[in-house]
TrEMBL record:
This is Alginate export domain-containing protein. Residues 1-33 form the signal peptide. The keyword Signal applies. Keywords: Signal. The keyword Repressor does not apply. Residues 42-62 are annotated as: Disordered. Residues 46-60 have a biased composition (Low complexity). InterPro entries: Alginate_export_dom, Alginate_Permeability_Chnl. Residues 105-493 form the Alginate export domain. Pfam families: Alginate_exp. Gene3D superfamilies: 2.40.160.100.
Length: 499
């Protein structure tokens, strides 16, 4: 809980809202400048007279300028060594030669995300949940050094802070700290390519249902890990040994490896398997001192996962299933989950509408006290896989969500959806994020949890600026209402900048 006074929180909140409003205006200005730059070959018109004109691209120029991506370490700014590419402001910091070999260079970059959120009923108003409006901010800077074609060193710092938030959770706040710091190697081995990374790094699988960088909340998830993979033809074989990072919010640079949690495994991927891609993995999840509703002790889970995803116009699909075995203390584990996304795109209609359907399920503990834990552990989930509101998590759940998405322009998307939720078993609880139990729900009421309406708009203003708006209304079921729960509303406005 925050220790600041209500008046101080109001001041912080107002300052945060002003900050995000300023960022939105800045983003709009940056977008306009970017459009002008595109028209004039790289420099804004207002500055063109003060700049030396960049060389015009020729018909034979094959170099492509990178754009900021989700994983910043995967960008290759060595393309700027080619003089045929037009230059933009600050390109001298995006490509800093380290030797006469153009493949030796240093590249600097940054990310900033500001999000205003209003949530009038966290945990549906049960327990300590109360209405709250606030701003969360995540700032990142990084340095990416390339030593030829084979060796890379990447360092990223992150500072995540909430402003005006009444109840601050571990995923809201992390003062300046080391988010990533690893050395990577890429080389040929026989007919294939071997890749390895050692150090603090982010990792994610597939749609990030269960293994994610946790981009939705404010503090992203990293791992102190050894990662290796071998790619040959359409096959990729991966092995990983990790300890997730334990985040602390008391001081800067105080994060450490979690001594009580390990996650390791093997994964295989096969691309172009029919009309889609196939993947499967086994992982070992080891957590000390775990607590469930009817079991406690050291948790040891063996995780088995398979996924098939692809696209054959006008259809697209993503199907994943996971099984879990093992034990928590003396209690055995038997849990499962599945997720399916599918869609049909009417490409010939205005706005190319996509009719989508999402179905998710995760087991609960149907017989508490029998020495068997049936509650599914979502491991390292995205945090906001269903909606940004994050009202429910991926445990003891049946979720059905039809949606309709429109491409209003090449850079503007609008999505509307209705979600329907049940518990897999009424004997277990309704779970929120981080497997937080919604108070009083275990063993009470019917399986019906409620339904929600969602509206989301995404605008890619430029390669560097993106804006988003999301609104969610959750109508709770009678069983939750009988416990004192109430309907919940969420609004989020987000601005992201990447350089």
């Amino acid at each position: 809980m925050s220790s600041t006074t209500p008046r101080a929180r109001r001041i912080e909140r107002a300052a945060g809202i002003a900050a995000i409003a300023g960022l939105l205006l800045t983003g709009a200005g940056a977008a306009a400048a970017a459009e002008i730059a595109d028209e004039t070959g790289g420099e804004p018109k207002a500055a063109a007279s003060a700049q030396t004109p960049a060389p015009a691209p020729t018909a034979t120029c094959k170099a492509q300028r990178p754009v900021p991506g989700f994983n910043r370490w995967q960008e290759n700014w060595g393309a700027l060594a080619d003089p045929c590419l037009p230059r933009k402001p600050l390109d001298a910091l995006k490509y800093i030669p380290l030797s006469g070999d153009p493949s030796w260079y240093l590249s600097l970059g940054a990310n900033l995300r500001e999000r205003f959120e209003f949530n009038d009923a966290p945990l549906f108003g049960l327990g300590s949940g109360r209405a709250d409006g606030y701003v969360i901010q995540r700032a990142q800077v990084h340095a990416d050094a390339r030593f030829g074609e084979h060796v890379q060193a990447f360092v990223q710092l992150e500072d995540a802070r909430p402003f005006g938030k009444d109840s601050v959770s571990p995923v809201d706040k992390n003062p300046l700290d080391l988010e990533q710091a690893f050395v990577a190697y890429v080389g040929q081995l026989g007919a294939g390519t071997v890749k390895a990374r050692i150090g603090r790094q982010e990792m994610a699988f597939d749609l990030q249902r269960f293994i994610a960088v946790r981009d939705g909340p404010n503090v992203r998830q990293a791992f102190d890990a050894l990662w290796g993979d071998y790619e040959i033809g359409q096959w990729r074989f991966i092995g990983y040994l990790t300890r997730p990072v334990q985040y602390r919010d008391l001081d800067s640079f105080d994060d450490t490896s979690n001594r009580h949690l390990k996650f390791s495994g093997l994964r295989v991927e096969r691309s172009s398997f029919g009309p889609g891609d196939l993947s499967a993995y086994w992982s070992r999840y080891e957590r000390d001192g775990a607590r469930f509703i009817d079991a406690a002790g050291n948790e040891r889970r063996d995780v088995f996962d398979m996924r098939y995803a692809g696209k054959r116009a006008p259809f697209d699909w993503d199907v994943e299933a996971m099984g879990q075995t093992g034990h928590v203390g003396a209690a055995s584990i038997g849990a499962w989950a599945f997720g399916m996304l599918g869609g049909y795109t009417f490409a010939s209609l205005p706005g190319a509408p996509r009719l989508g359907l999402q179905v998710d399920g995760a087991s609960g503990d149907s017989h508490p006290g029998n020495g068997h834990v049936g509650t599914f552990n979502p491991l390292f989930p995205n945090g906001y896989y269903f909606t940004l509101a994050g009202y429910t998590g991926y445990s003891n759940l049946i979720h059905v969500k039809p949606s309709l998405t429109f491409k209003l322009s090449p850079k503007l998307t609008l999505m509307t959806a209705l979600g329907f939720q049940w518990r897999e078993t009424a004997a277990d609880a309704v779970y929120g994020q981080g497997m937080a139990v919604v108070p009083g729900t275990a063993g009470h009421g019917s399986r019906w949890t409620g339904m929600y309406a969602q509206l989301r708009a995404d605008w890619l203003v430029s390669d560097n600026v993106a804006l988003a708006l999301e609104a969610v209304h959750f109508n709770v079921g009678d069983s939750l209402r009988a416990l004192g729960a109430r309907n919940a509303d969420y609004v989020g406005v987000e601005a992201k900048f990447g350089w």
